[in-house]
Design a protein that fits this description.
- The chain is an all-alpha fold.
- The chain folds into two domains: 12-206, no CATH class; 222-457, no CATH class.
- The chain is built from 23 helices and no strands.
- α14 packs antiparallel against α15 and α17 (345-353) crosses α19.
- The relative contact order is 0.12.
Length: 458
């Protein structure tokens, strides 16, 4: 039975609409209508494999308008599905708006979404239970674009069938992968998509396809994106502190409590701490991500801004300053001792998306976060090759592999404890909006005694 439209966070939809309007307005102000329409056509007709920066191939205006359209469509789908609004809603909005700057467009997302809808019909369940998985599974949208547009192989009908199949199998697969990662990889659907792509791309190649990765990377936009992102982050911080109906000191106290959580999934900060501290956390994390790119000599463009928006989205579901900085530092450390530089485009993305492993830092301590980021910086540069850039959440796949390896090793060798897989239901976690206390969310290892638990969390 679907949930009611009325939720604790019903004001989130107007805020999302304002965000979409700001994206579209900025795009219109930065380019001409003719250039935007031409750019949107270029985006739709692109194969979209990593790295396809829409700012580079279509222009800044078209990229922002595409992001606005995809985000608006996502919000409408969430609303029509009667999905309860919670922290994961912000995750979905951050992902859809960010990745629609480099891979997702207003056309290639539909077959996968319909496939998941079909899965809900077959299961005789309501679509709202799976809608977030449907939207996040559009990480494989480049598969639809490649099959539908590639010269000499594939067809639009085949691309739709492939997308529907992907959308249909993603709910059960993502529910399973969620359990085996023990909440240590926040980009769970990215890991599931990576598994699908690892099977799908060789199959396509055997049938005559030849998917290839791309390097379409825009430069020279720091002077535009830096003020825009800074303004957005400051609005969130100031709005959370002073314009949400709570004293600023109470909001700041809530944010400080948030910083002491591990971030291990599921960590719905919106349900745990309320909207004001989450807004502050979102703004601060966005500034951290942007600063990291700028001080390392990186570029603010479609992919990196998409990465920053992703961090901001997950600021409502597991990420905060204390657990993301060590992992990002691990990537920076890798650039010192390995045969690549931190200014490399793929490494810049790794600097941002490595924060999928933030729970390792929060749960086991910052040295393990640095280790996770260090290992991730190399692994992510290799795992994308077998799937030819057709999985947009490539860092989620890398993060999942590391989570599966590191978690049992740390638990058994360092903690000397018995490994147990978590048994939380993946869909139930994302289908509620009632308040949740921080301690309800902290998934403590069964061997920890109450006194030790109290010491660790207070």
């Amino acid at each position: 039975m679907p949930y009611s439209h009325h939720t604790r966070f019903e004001n989130m939809y107007p805020a999302i609409l304002v965000f979409c309007a700001l994206l579209a307005l900025t795009g219109v102000l930065l380019d001409t209508p003719q250039a935007i329409l031409s750019g949107l056509k270029t985006i739709v007709m692109s194969e979209d494999a990593l790295i396809t920066d829409y700012v580079r191939i279509a222009g800044l205006g078209a990229a922002l308008v595409n992001s606005a359209l995809v985000t608006l469509v996502s919000a409408v789908i969430l609303h029509l599905s009667k999905e309860p609004l919670n922290g994961f809603t912000m995750v979905v909005i951050g992902l859809m708006s960010g990745f629609s700057l480099f891979g997702k467009n207003i056309v290639n997302i539909w077959p996968i979404i319909f496939g998941t809808y079909l899965y809900s019909r077959v299961r005789k369940d309501y679509f709202g239970k799976y809608v977030t998985v449907a939207l996040m599974s559009t990480a494989l949208s480049p598969v639809i674009s490649y099959i539908g547009l590639d010269n000499g192989w594939g067809s639009p009908i085949l691309s739709v069938l492939a997308g529907v199949t992907i959308g249909f199998i993603m709910p059960p697969l993502s529910a399973y992968t969620y359990k085996i990662q023990n909440g240590m990889n926040l980009y769970n659907v990215g890991f599931a998509c990576g598994l699908v792509a690892t099977l799908l791309v060789p199959l396509m190649t055997s049938l005559g396809a030849d998917p290839t990765t791309y390097y379409r990377w825009a430069t020279g936009y720091n002077h535009i994106f830096a003020p825009l992102l800074t303004g957005l982050c400051l609005i969130m911080i100031v709005g959370g502190l002073f314009f949400c109906g709570k004293p600023y000191w109470a909001v700041w106290a809530g944010y400080r409590r948030l910083l002491h959580t591990t971030g291990r999934a599921p960590s719905d900060y919106l349900r745990m701490f309320g909207f004001p501290p989450v807004l502050v956390n979102t703004g601060i994390n966005g500034l951290i991500g942007m600063t990291f790119i700028l001080i390392t000599g990186g570029d603010l463009n479609g992919p990196t801004v998409g990465g920053i928006l992703t961090i901001m989205g997950f600021s409502a579901f597991g990420k905060h300053a204390r657990n993301i900085i060590p992992v990002m530092a691990g990537v920076a450390l890798g650039s010192v001792v390995m045969h690549w530089t931190i200014s490399n485009s793929a490494v810049q993305l790794a600097c941002l998306f490595c924060t999928t492993l933030a729970p390792i830092s929060g749960y086991f301590g910052w040295p393990y976060g640095v280790l996770a980021g260090f290992l991730h910086s190399s692994l992510v540069l290799s795992v994308g090759s077998p799937v030819s850039g057709l999985n947009l959440y490539n860092n989620g796949f890398s993060g999942g592999l590391l989570a599966i390896i590191l978690y049992p090793l740390i638990i058994d060798i360092v903690r000397h404890r018995k490994l147990e897989l978590q048994d939380e239901d993946y869909f139930d976690i994302m289908s509620h909006e009632e308040p949740q206390t921080p301690l309800d969310n902290e998934m403590v290892e069964p061997e920890i005694e109450p006194e030790e638990f109290h010491a660790e969390h207070h």
